[in-house]
């Protein structure tokens, strides 16, 4: 041992002190590691060090990104992160339904501008279709619907849910892509009944509806089982939990400074000029 310490230029006392510290149980670090693991598991293995820091600080812990990364490494936690998408751009609008939103995603009050979109989910050996409505004020999910048919009734059901949950608001602008469901006579009649102004993205331009694209990207990369769902009922229950509970009320959102959407909606908005 003397020869080894001499070669490494380390004193024997330092070596033995290191051995004692290595074998000592650090109860505080174990507690933090358990808490980080709980946050990680609650996110279905999608939370990275940034999310873990935000959630732990909200619970009163003093922790930084470096320590969070170390805790994740010690607990063998590897975050699932989505790959960037390459979107095509276009400048063509529908002449009868212009792009009134025009990427003005920042709003001052709830129920000013909503966005909607559809995606597909694998369930019980077939595709089912998910329609979601999002309020741009705090990016909160306010309506959703799941069906085995991607028809107008799917998007109308999601809109109806949003309209009822938000207290029958008037003067809302509803923005979507140029999908046939949103351009259908049935859906446009429902918007007219609710006194909503319709807006549509330019054809093939996903950035015009970027907040909705982000919701689906987060759901599919963070939450959706890799092999899909076994049954339609399982899919509906799990998707509802993600959208209305985890995504709305627990998941930190960078657009709101790391605050969950429900809490962010209740805070005064500095853009409103009423603070």
Automatic annotation (TrEMBL):
It holds the Pfam family rve. Residues 106-268 form the Integrase catalytic domain. One of its GO terms (biological process) is DNA integration. It comes from the Bacteria. GO terms for molecular function: nucleic acid binding. Signal peptide: none annotated. This is Transposase of ISPca13. It comes from Syntrophotalea carbinolica (strain DSM 2380 / NBRC 103641 / GraBd1). The lineage of its organism: Bacteria, Pseudomonadati, Thermodesulfobacteriota, Desulfuromonadia, Desulfuromonadales.
């Amino acid at each position: 041992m003397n020869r080894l310490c001499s070669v490494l230029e380390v004193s024997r006392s330092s070596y033995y002190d290191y051995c004692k510290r290595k074998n000592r149980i650090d109860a505080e670090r174990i507690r933090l590691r358990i808490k980080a693991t709980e946050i990680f598991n609650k996110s279905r293995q999608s939370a990275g060090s940034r999310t873990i820091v935000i959630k732990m600080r909200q619970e009163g812990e003093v922790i930084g990104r470096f320590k969070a990364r170390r805790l994740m490494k010690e607990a063998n936690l590897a975050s699932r992160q989505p790959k960037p998408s390459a979107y095509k751009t276009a400048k063509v609008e529908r002449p009868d339904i212009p792009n009134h939103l025009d990427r003005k995603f920042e709003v001052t009050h709830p129920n000013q501008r909503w966005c909607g979109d559809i995606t597909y989910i694998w369930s019980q050996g077939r595709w089912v279709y998910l329609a979601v409505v999002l309020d741009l004020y705090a990016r909160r999910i306010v309506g959703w619907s799941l069906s085995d048919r991607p028809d107008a009734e799917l998007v109308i059901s999601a809109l109806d849910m949003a309209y009822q949950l938000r207290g029958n608001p008037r003067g809302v602008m509803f923005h979507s892509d140029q999908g046939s469901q949103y351009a259908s006579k049935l859906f446009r009649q429902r918007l007219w009944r609710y006194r909503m102004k319709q807006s549509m993205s330019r054809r093939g331009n996903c950035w015009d509806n970027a907040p909705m694209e982000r919701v689906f990207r987060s759901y599919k990369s963070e939450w959706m089982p890799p092999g899909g769902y076994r049954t339609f009922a399982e899919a509906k229950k799990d998707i509802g939990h993600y959208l209305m509970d985890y995504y709305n009320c627990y998941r930190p959102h960078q657009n709101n400074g790391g605050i969950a959407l429900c809490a962010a909606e209740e805070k005064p908005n500095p853009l409103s000029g009423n603070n």
